[in-house]
Amino acid sequence: EVQLLESGGGLVQRGGSLRLSCAASGFTFSSYAMIWVRQAPGKGLEWVSTISGSGDNTYYADSVKGRFIISRDNFKNTLYLQMNSLRAEDTAVYYCAKPRQTWGTHYGMDVWGQGTTVTVSS
Amino acid sequence: QSALTQPASVSGSPGQSITISCTGTSSDVGAYDYVSWYQKHPGKAPKLMIYDVSNRPSGVSNRFSGSKSGNTASLTISGLQAEDEADYYCSSFRIGSTRVFGTGTKVTVL
What we know:
heterodimer, A: 7-stranded mixed β-sheet, globular
């Protein structure tokens, strides 16, 4: 069964850092780009970042560029999101997601984790 | 990076059809046939309902259909059922290999 399991969320002070993890299983992890998406309380979905299967190419939303770093360990089948200089507006549920096809970064996302909650306090 | 524009809410009676629009620009919806739609219930992970404008993943009811014209994509739900009540989000690939979501539409079954 294809599964994604996020962890690492929690309460952090404004300006602090947090690293999220997403453990993947049931598919050839290294063949797929991976994506982080978040949803702030009462708000809509927001794309955060994408990383290619090899990890060589990364893309970020303007709202997190320069503060967040996406990475992956294809030996551990794990996706990461290092979040630095956190702001109140980064408070959200963070989801990792898998595209429905290999290699491309543009495919619809057919498998999602259950989400991990990040709360930034001021 | 502005979000795609969706109506805040759409409602219909059981059995009726409803359509949700998703308006973007020539840099996203109008540039690629990589529009997808997601259903989201509170506290649950999003679920892929439509990909590549009009394709349904295995297991998704054929009551869900998608289309696109110019910079606007649409999701139609026919034969509306109580279980369809949820939030719906469109998403598009965007120039620069980024992605963008829509503002979201709350579907209410009357």
